[in-house]
Amino acid sequence: MRTVGNGLVAFEPSCLLVYRIGKPASLWQVRKPARGPRSNRFDDPQGNYGVLYACSTRLGCFVETLQNLIRFHAFEAGSDDSGSPETVMNAWLATATIGTARIDGAFANICDSFWLETVRAGILPPDNDLQGVTYLDAAVMQSTNRRLTQQASRLVHARPDHAGIRYRSRFGHEIENWAIFDNKAIEIVNPGEAVNDDDPDLHTAVRLLRNCLI
Q1: Alpha helix locations (H) across 3-145?
Q2: pLDDT tens string for the chain (214 positions)?
Q3: Do residues 63 and 169 make contact, with C-beta atoms less than 8 angstroms apart?
């Protein structure tokens, strides 16, 4: 941890190993940000920079990836029926690849009081559409309100000394996630390997997500 400009606290991992899941050909490529319901938490709403998402643990990586796939499945189906974690897993597993990299640099702890105050000042003028939010706190940063989380991403990206955002999962604060801007501060360790259908972390993630469904 260190203090950067204006007293903001940054988390500085030193060669921290992170995990990422995706398709083999594009696992470590920064994709063009999606728009609308398919966009991710800290994507740039204006599409000027890309964001690569990773996690500090294999289990957390499976949880975050599968919950996104469940959300996308519901969007594609045009209904509230997102499908079970098992159904989504089975459809996705054939092309799933998991790889590792090491990251360095300064990352904004977006749910710290320092950053929450900055975000409030930066995106809460009276004329903004806040989508019903009357009080911006850490819960909002972990919510599905993409309008606000993506505006927060732009505030962090505007600071050249920051490589991205560190944030906790809404499925458990022991899960540490990273939103890395434009593939900065990444050294690839394992470009990717197939995910086995008997992977214990995968099945633990399925169980956790099944228990979260209401």
Answers
A1: 58-77, 85-92, 113-123, 138-141
A2: 455 555 456 777 767 899 999 888 889 988 776 665 567 889 998 888 999 999 999 999 999 988 877 765 544 444 444 556 667 677 788 888 999 999 988 899 998 888 888 888 887 655 455 566 777 888 888 887 888 899 899 999 998 889 999 999 888 889 999 999 987 778 999 999 999 989 999 989 988 887 765 4
A3: yes
Alpha helices in the chain (DSSP H): 58-77, 85-92, 113-123, 138-141, 146-157, 200-212
Alpha-carbon distances, residue 124 vs 18, 136, 139, 146 (angstroms): 33, 9, 16, 15
Single-letter code of the amino acid located at 139:
A
Tokens 């398709």 belong to 23
For the residues of 65-92, what is the DSSP string, one character each? HHHHHHHHHHHHHTSS----HHHHHHHH
DSSP state of 25: G
Q: How many Cβ atoms sit within 10 Å of the Cβ of residue 11?
A: 17
pTM of the model: 0.84
